[in-house]
Amino acid sequence: MWNVECGNVILVETVELVETVELVEMVEMVEMVEMVEERLKWLSRRVILISCFTIFTVLPSYSLSVSWSLSLEVETHNDASLRTTGYGPEDLVLDSLNNPPRVLISCAGRREEYPAYGEIQAFYLESGKVETLKRVHEPAGLVFRPHGISLLTLDSRRYLFVISHDEVARYHPVLRYRVSNDTLFFEKVFHDNLLISPNALQAYPDGSILVCNDAARRGSMAEKIFRLKRGNIVRFDGIGNWNVVAEKLGMPAGLAGSGENLYACGSLENRLYRYTYKNGALADKRTLTKIKGGDNIRIYDGFLLTTSHAKPLKFISHVGNREKPSPSLVLKIDTTTGSSSVLYSDNGGIISAASAALIWNRQLIVGQIFEPAILINQLE
What we know:
Number of domains: 2
CATH architecture of the largest domain: 6 Propeller
Oligomer: single chain
Helix content: under 10%
Shape: globular
Protein backbone atom coordinates (compact mmCIF):
# COMPACT_ATOMS: atom_id res chain seq x y z
CA MET A 1 0.00 0.00 0.00
CA TRP A 2 1.39 3.44 -0.97
CA ASN A 3 -0.16 6.16 1.17
CA VAL A 4 0.61 9.83 0.65
CA GLU A 5 -1.30 12.02 3.10
CA CYS A 6 -1.49 15.70 2.17
CA GLY A 7 -3.66 17.36 4.82
CA ASN A 8 -7.03 16.07 3.77
CA VAL A 9 -5.74 14.51 0.54
CA ILE A 10 -4.99 10.84 0.31
CA LEU A 11 -3.55 9.30 -2.83
CA VAL A 12 -3.63 5.54 -2.61
CA GLU A 13 -2.02 3.03 -4.94
CA THR A 14 -1.70 -0.67 -4.25
CA VAL A 15 1.75 -2.18 -4.76
CA GLU A 16 3.58 -5.20 -3.38
CA LEU A 17 5.20 -4.81 0.04
CA VAL A 18 8.64 -5.80 1.25
CA GLU A 19 10.54 -2.86 2.76
CA THR A 20 9.97 0.62 4.21
CA VAL A 21 12.13 3.62 3.54
CA GLU A 22 11.88 7.15 4.90
CA LEU A 23 12.49 9.95 2.41
CA VAL A 24 13.35 13.10 4.29
CA GLU A 25 13.56 15.49 1.38
CA MET A 26 11.26 15.28 -1.61
CA VAL A 27 10.69 18.12 -4.03
CA GLU A 28 10.08 21.84 -4.26
CA MET A 29 6.55 23.23 -4.13
CA VAL A 30 6.22 23.80 -7.84
CA GLU A 31 7.39 20.27 -8.59
CA MET A 32 4.94 18.73 -6.15
CA VAL A 33 2.09 20.44 -7.96
CA GLU A 34 3.36 18.85 -11.14
CA MET A 35 3.52 15.45 -9.45
CA VAL A 36 -0.05 15.62 -8.19
CA GLU A 37 -1.40 16.69 -11.55
CA GLU A 38 0.41 14.00 -13.54
CA ARG A 39 -0.18 11.21 -11.07
CA LEU A 40 -3.90 11.92 -10.94
CA LYS A 41 -4.07 11.53 -14.70
CA TRP A 42 -2.23 8.24 -14.51
CA LEU A 43 -4.13 6.79 -11.59
CA SER A 44 -7.54 7.94 -12.91
CA ARG A 45 -10.13 5.69 -11.20
CA ARG A 46 -7.76 4.50 -8.48
CA VAL A 47 -7.26 7.89 -6.88
CA ILE A 48 -9.41 9.66 -4.33
CA LEU A 49 -8.97 13.41 -4.28
CA ILE A 50 -10.33 15.57 -1.48
CA SER A 51 -7.88 18.54 -1.32
CA CYS A 52 -4.17 19.29 -1.00
CA PHE A 53 -4.14 22.43 1.08
CA THR A 54 -1.54 21.37 3.63
CA ILE A 55 0.77 19.38 1.38
CA PHE A 56 3.70 21.75 1.68
CA THR A 57 3.61 21.99 5.46
CA VAL A 58 4.44 18.32 5.93
CA LEU A 59 7.29 17.99 3.43
CA PRO A 60 10.22 18.58 5.82
CA SER A 61 9.34 15.52 7.88
CA TYR A 62 7.70 13.61 5.07
CA SER A 63 7.71 9.85 5.42
CA LEU A 64 7.03 7.48 2.56
CA SER A 65 6.41 3.79 3.12
CA VAL A 66 6.81 1.56 0.13
CA SER A 67 7.35 -2.11 -0.20
CA TRP A 68 8.45 -4.04 -3.19
CA SER A 69 8.55 -7.74 -3.84
CA LEU A 70 11.88 -8.86 -5.24
CA SER A 71 14.03 -11.74 -4.22
CA LEU A 72 17.63 -10.75 -4.78
CA GLU A 73 19.75 -13.57 -6.18
CA VAL A 74 22.43 -15.16 -4.04
CA GLU A 75 25.59 -13.07 -4.04
CA THR A 76 28.17 -14.16 -6.60
CA HIS A 77 31.63 -12.77 -6.02
CA ASN A 78 33.95 -15.50 -7.31
CA ASP A 79 37.27 -13.67 -7.71
CA ALA A 80 35.99 -10.10 -7.50
CA SER A 81 38.35 -7.18 -7.03
CA LEU A 82 38.24 -3.40 -7.43
CA ARG A 83 40.43 -1.09 -9.52
CA THR A 84 40.64 2.53 -8.49
CA THR A 85 39.41 5.01 -11.12
CA GLY A 86 38.22 8.58 -11.23
CA TYR A 87 34.95 9.48 -9.54
CA GLY A 88 31.79 8.00 -11.00
CA PRO A 89 32.89 5.45 -13.65
CA GLU A 90 29.33 5.33 -14.95
CA ASP A 91 29.71 4.05 -18.51
CA LEU A 92 32.13 1.68 -20.23
CA VAL A 93 32.98 0.75 -23.83
CA LEU A 94 35.36 -1.96 -25.02
CA ASP A 95 38.21 -0.61 -27.17
CA SER A 96 39.44 -3.98 -28.41
CA LEU A 97 41.13 -2.57 -31.53
CA ASN A 98 43.60 -0.66 -29.44
CA ASN A 99 46.97 -2.28 -28.84
CA PRO A 100 46.87 -3.31 -26.04
CA PRO A 101 43.08 -3.83 -25.64
CA ARG A 102 41.35 -1.64 -23.08
CA VAL A 103 38.10 -0.35 -21.67
CA LEU A 104 37.28 3.34 -22.02
CA ILE A 105 35.58 4.70 -18.91
CA SER A 106 33.35 7.77 -18.59
CA CYS A 107 34.09 9.32 -15.17
CA ALA A 108 32.38 12.26 -13.49
CA GLY A 109 31.98 13.38 -9.88
CA ARG A 110 28.29 13.18 -8.99
CA ARG A 111 28.28 13.91 -5.27
CA GLU A 112 28.45 17.34 -3.67
CA GLU A 113 31.32 16.23 -1.46
CA TYR A 114 33.35 15.17 -4.50
CA PRO A 115 35.34 17.66 -6.59
CA ALA A 116 34.10 18.82 -9.97
CA TYR A 117 35.66 16.04 -12.00
CA GLY A 118 35.27 14.82 -15.56
CA GLU A 119 37.64 12.57 -17.51
CA ILE A 120 37.81 9.66 -19.91
CA GLN A 121 40.05 6.96 -18.51
CA ALA A 122 41.43 3.75 -19.96
CA PHE A 123 41.58 0.46 -18.11
CA TYR A 124 44.19 -1.77 -19.79
CA LEU A 125 42.86 -5.29 -19.68
CA GLU A 126 46.16 -7.16 -19.75
CA SER A 127 48.15 -5.08 -17.28
CA GLY A 128 45.32 -3.84 -15.07
CA LYS A 129 46.58 -0.24 -15.26
CA VAL A 130 44.22 2.73 -15.29
CA GLU A 131 45.28 5.91 -17.07
CA THR A 132 43.59 9.20 -17.91
CA LEU A 133 43.51 10.04 -21.60
CA LYS A 134 44.60 13.49 -22.74
CA ARG A 135 42.00 15.63 -24.51
CA VAL A 136 43.16 18.20 -27.06
CA HIS A 137 41.70 20.80 -29.44
CA GLU A 138 38.59 21.36 -27.35
CA PRO A 139 36.83 24.73 -27.75
CA ALA A 140 37.56 27.34 -25.08
CA GLY A 141 35.22 27.22 -22.11
CA LEU A 142 33.98 23.70 -22.74
CA VAL A 143 32.69 22.07 -19.56
CA PHE A 144 33.50 18.36 -19.70
CA ARG A 145 31.30 16.23 -17.44
CA PRO A 146 30.91 12.94 -19.33
CA HIS A 147 27.95 10.62 -19.03
CA GLY A 148 26.97 8.06 -21.68
CA ILE A 149 29.56 7.10 -24.32
CA SER A 150 29.53 5.24 -27.63
CA LEU A 151 32.55 3.98 -29.58
CA LEU A 152 32.37 3.79 -33.38
CA THR A 153 34.98 2.36 -35.74
CA LEU A 154 34.89 3.79 -39.26
CA ASP A 155 37.51 3.26 -41.97
CA SER A 156 39.97 1.90 -39.38
CA ARG A 157 39.56 5.04 -37.24
CA ARG A 158 37.91 5.02 -33.85
CA TYR A 159 35.56 7.77 -32.69
CA LEU A 160 34.25 8.29 -29.18
CA PHE A 161 30.89 10.03 -28.79
CA VAL A 162 30.39 11.52 -25.35
CA ILE A 163 27.35 13.06 -23.67
CA SER A 164 28.56 15.96 -21.52
CA HIS A 165 26.64 18.02 -18.98
CA ASP A 166 27.08 21.71 -18.20
CA GLU A 167 24.47 22.04 -15.48
CA VAL A 168 25.00 25.76 -14.94
CA ALA A 169 24.46 26.64 -18.59
CA ARG A 170 21.84 23.89 -19.04
CA TYR A 171 23.85 22.72 -22.00
CA HIS A 172 24.02 18.98 -22.70
CA PRO A 173 25.76 18.33 -26.01
CA VAL A 174 27.19 15.23 -27.65
CA LEU A 175 30.93 15.56 -28.29
CA ARG A 176 32.90 13.59 -30.87
CA TYR A 177 36.58 12.71 -30.41
CA ARG A 178 38.98 10.79 -32.59
CA VAL A 179 40.67 8.14 -30.47
CA SER A 180 44.41 7.41 -30.45
CA ASN A 181 46.57 5.40 -28.05
CA ASP A 182 46.80 8.05 -25.35
CA THR A 183 44.86 11.07 -26.66
CA LEU A 184 41.33 12.09 -27.56
CA PHE A 185 41.28 14.62 -30.40
CA PHE A 186 38.18 16.80 -30.24
CA GLU A 187 36.43 17.04 -33.61
CA LYS A 188 32.83 18.19 -33.31
CA VAL A 189 29.98 19.16 -31.02
CA PHE A 190 26.37 18.15 -31.67
CA HIS A 191 23.61 20.06 -29.93
CA ASP A 192 19.92 20.76 -30.20
CA ASN A 193 17.15 21.92 -27.89
CA LEU A 194 15.85 18.34 -27.96
CA LEU A 195 18.85 17.32 -25.83
CA ILE A 196 17.16 18.04 -22.51
CA SER A 197 18.51 15.35 -20.22
CA PRO A 198 20.57 12.96 -22.36
CA ASN A 199 21.69 9.79 -20.65
CA ALA A 200 22.84 7.20 -23.20
CA LEU A 201 23.54 7.14 -26.93
CA GLN A 202 24.31 4.98 -29.93
CA ALA A 203 26.38 6.25 -32.86
CA TYR A 204 26.04 4.77 -36.37
CA PRO A 205 28.37 4.60 -39.41
CA ASP A 206 25.99 6.70 -41.54
CA GLY A 207 26.56 9.66 -39.21
CA SER A 208 23.29 9.33 -37.36
CA ILE A 209 23.11 9.29 -33.55
CA LEU A 210 20.33 8.07 -31.27
CA VAL A 211 20.16 9.66 -27.82
CA CYS A 212 17.76 8.91 -24.97
CA ASN A 213 16.55 11.71 -22.71
CA ASP A 214 15.79 10.23 -19.30
CA ALA A 215 13.42 13.05 -18.36
CA ALA A 216 11.40 15.89 -19.83
CA ARG A 217 12.79 18.16 -17.13
CA ARG A 218 16.37 17.49 -16.08
CA GLY A 219 16.65 16.41 -12.47
CA SER A 220 12.89 16.11 -12.04
CA MET A 221 12.19 14.24 -8.82
CA ALA A 222 8.53 14.11 -9.78
CA GLU A 223 9.18 11.91 -12.77
CA LYS A 224 11.27 9.48 -10.73
CA ILE A 225 9.00 9.17 -7.71
CA PHE A 226 5.79 8.83 -9.67
CA ARG A 227 7.30 6.88 -12.55
CA LEU A 228 6.11 9.31 -15.18
CA LYS A 229 6.77 8.29 -18.77
CA ARG A 230 8.28 11.53 -20.01
CA GLY A 231 11.54 10.27 -21.45
CA ASN A 232 12.14 9.92 -25.17
CA ILE A 233 14.66 8.97 -27.85
CA VAL A 234 15.86 11.60 -30.31
CA ARG A 235 17.79 11.18 -33.55
CA PHE A 236 20.44 13.21 -35.32
CA ASP A 237 20.34 12.41 -39.04
CA GLY A 238 24.03 13.03 -39.72
CA ILE A 239 23.31 16.18 -41.71
CA GLY A 240 22.07 18.65 -39.13
CA ASN A 241 18.51 17.70 -38.27
CA TRP A 242 17.15 16.35 -35.00
CA ASN A 243 13.76 14.76 -34.35
CA VAL A 244 11.97 12.67 -31.74
CA VAL A 245 11.71 9.01 -32.77
CA ALA A 246 10.25 7.45 -29.59
CA GLU A 247 8.20 8.89 -26.73
CA LYS A 248 6.53 8.03 -23.43
CA LEU A 249 9.42 6.16 -21.85
CA GLY A 250 9.97 5.97 -18.10
CA MET A 251 13.52 7.19 -17.57
CA PRO A 252 15.34 5.47 -20.45
CA ALA A 253 18.88 5.01 -19.12
CA GLY A 254 20.38 2.49 -21.52
CA LEU A 255 20.64 2.30 -25.30
CA ALA A 256 22.40 -0.14 -27.62
CA GLY A 257 22.02 -0.94 -31.30
CA SER A 258 22.86 -3.95 -33.44
CA GLY A 259 21.88 -4.04 -37.10
CA GLU A 260 18.21 -3.06 -37.36
CA ASN A 261 17.59 -3.72 -33.66
CA LEU A 262 17.71 -1.04 -30.99
CA TYR A 263 17.44 -1.90 -27.30
CA ALA A 264 16.39 0.59 -24.63
CA CYS A 265 15.94 0.27 -20.87
CA GLY A 266 12.92 2.00 -19.37
CA SER A 267 14.25 2.15 -15.82
CA LEU A 268 11.06 3.41 -14.19
CA GLU A 269 8.94 0.95 -16.15
CA ASN A 270 11.14 -2.03 -15.28
CA ARG A 271 11.21 -2.93 -18.97
CA LEU A 272 13.84 -3.57 -21.61
CA TYR A 273 12.43 -2.73 -25.03
CA ARG A 274 13.40 -3.78 -28.52
CA TYR A 275 12.70 -1.55 -31.51
CA THR A 276 13.23 -1.95 -35.23
CA TYR A 277 15.48 0.88 -36.44
CA LYS A 278 15.12 1.39 -40.17
CA ASN A 279 15.14 4.35 -42.55
CA GLY A 280 15.70 6.76 -39.68
CA ALA A 281 12.65 5.64 -37.70
CA LEU A 282 11.95 3.44 -34.71
CA ALA A 283 9.04 1.02 -34.98
CA ASP A 284 7.68 -2.27 -33.61
CA LYS A 285 8.30 -1.49 -29.95
CA ARG A 286 8.21 -4.71 -27.95
CA THR A 287 9.05 -5.67 -24.38
CA LEU A 288 12.00 -8.04 -24.57
CA THR A 289 12.12 -8.68 -20.83
CA LYS A 290 11.36 -7.15 -17.43
CA ILE A 291 14.23 -5.68 -15.39
CA LYS A 292 14.11 -3.78 -12.12
CA GLY A 293 15.82 -0.42 -12.66
CA GLY A 294 17.78 -1.33 -15.78
CA ASP A 295 20.73 0.88 -16.72
CA ASN A 296 23.32 0.90 -19.52
CA ILE A 297 23.22 -1.83 -22.18
CA ARG A 298 26.12 -3.42 -24.02
CA ILE A 299 26.08 -6.15 -26.67
CA TYR A 300 28.31 -9.18 -26.18
CA ASP A 301 28.44 -12.30 -28.35
CA GLY A 302 24.82 -11.93 -29.46
CA PHE A 303 23.56 -11.27 -25.93
CA LEU A 304 22.80 -8.09 -24.02
CA LEU A 305 24.66 -7.15 -20.85
CA THR A 306 22.95 -4.74 -18.50
CA THR A 307 22.88 -3.82 -14.85
CA SER A 308 19.93 -3.61 -12.51
CA HIS A 309 19.30 -1.35 -9.52
CA ALA A 310 17.46 -4.24 -7.97
CA LYS A 311 16.25 -2.43 -4.84
CA PRO A 312 15.03 0.98 -6.05
CA LEU A 313 14.49 2.50 -2.61
CA LYS A 314 17.93 1.45 -1.42
CA PHE A 315 19.28 3.01 -4.60
CA ILE A 316 17.54 6.28 -3.70
CA SER A 317 19.11 6.13 -0.24
CA HIS A 318 22.53 5.53 -1.79
CA VAL A 319 22.09 8.54 -4.06
CA GLY A 320 21.79 10.71 -0.97
CA ASN A 321 24.33 8.93 1.22
CA ARG A 322 27.36 6.95 0.07
CA GLU A 323 27.36 5.00 3.34
CA LYS A 324 24.03 3.36 2.45
CA PRO A 325 24.71 0.48 0.05
CA SER A 326 22.61 -0.22 -3.02
CA PRO A 327 22.42 -3.83 -4.31
CA SER A 328 23.69 -4.48 -7.82
CA LEU A 329 22.93 -7.09 -10.44
CA VAL A 330 24.63 -7.77 -13.77
CA LEU A 331 22.41 -9.63 -16.22
CA LYS A 332 22.98 -11.46 -19.50
CA ILE A 333 19.90 -11.40 -21.73
CA ASP A 334 19.06 -13.48 -24.79
CA THR A 335 18.07 -11.09 -27.60
CA THR A 336 15.65 -13.62 -29.10
CA THR A 337 13.81 -15.05 -26.11
CA GLY A 338 14.42 -12.34 -23.52
CA SER A 339 15.51 -14.96 -20.99
CA SER A 340 18.12 -13.70 -18.53
CA SER A 341 20.79 -15.09 -16.25
CA VAL A 342 22.68 -13.45 -13.41
CA LEU A 343 26.39 -12.95 -14.05
CA TYR A 344 27.09 -11.08 -10.84
CA SER A 345 25.12 -10.19 -7.73
CA ASP A 346 26.13 -8.08 -4.74
CA ASN A 347 24.22 -6.56 -1.84
CA GLY A 348 26.22 -3.34 -2.20
CA GLY A 349 29.06 -4.30 0.09
CA ILE A 350 31.57 -4.47 -2.76
CA ILE A 351 29.98 -2.32 -5.45
CA SER A 352 26.87 -0.15 -5.15
CA ALA A 353 24.67 1.16 -7.93
CA ALA A 354 26.35 -0.79 -10.72
CA SER A 355 25.70 1.03 -13.98
CA ALA A 356 27.44 -0.76 -16.89
CA ALA A 357 29.09 -4.09 -17.65
CA LEU A 358 31.43 -5.58 -20.25
CA ILE A 359 33.06 -8.97 -20.80
CA TRP A 360 36.58 -9.57 -22.10
CA ASN A 361 38.39 -12.89 -22.00
CA ARG A 362 36.06 -14.21 -19.27
CA GLN A 363 36.56 -11.10 -17.20
CA LEU A 364 33.48 -9.18 -16.17
CA ILE A 365 34.13 -5.43 -15.83
CA VAL A 366 31.48 -3.40 -13.99
CA GLY A 367 31.14 0.36 -13.55
CA GLN A 368 29.17 2.30 -10.95
CA ILE A 369 27.49 5.69 -10.75
CA PHE A 370 29.25 7.35 -7.83
CA GLU A 371 32.28 5.73 -6.23
CA PRO A 372 35.81 5.80 -7.75
CA ALA A 373 36.34 2.16 -8.70
CA ILE A 374 35.37 -0.46 -11.24
CA LEU A 375 34.85 -4.11 -10.36
CA ILE A 376 36.71 -6.97 -12.06
CA ASN A 377 35.24 -10.44 -11.64
CA GLN A 378 36.54 -13.65 -13.22
CA LEU A 379 33.64 -15.59 -14.71
CA GLU A 380 33.52 -19.34 -14.30
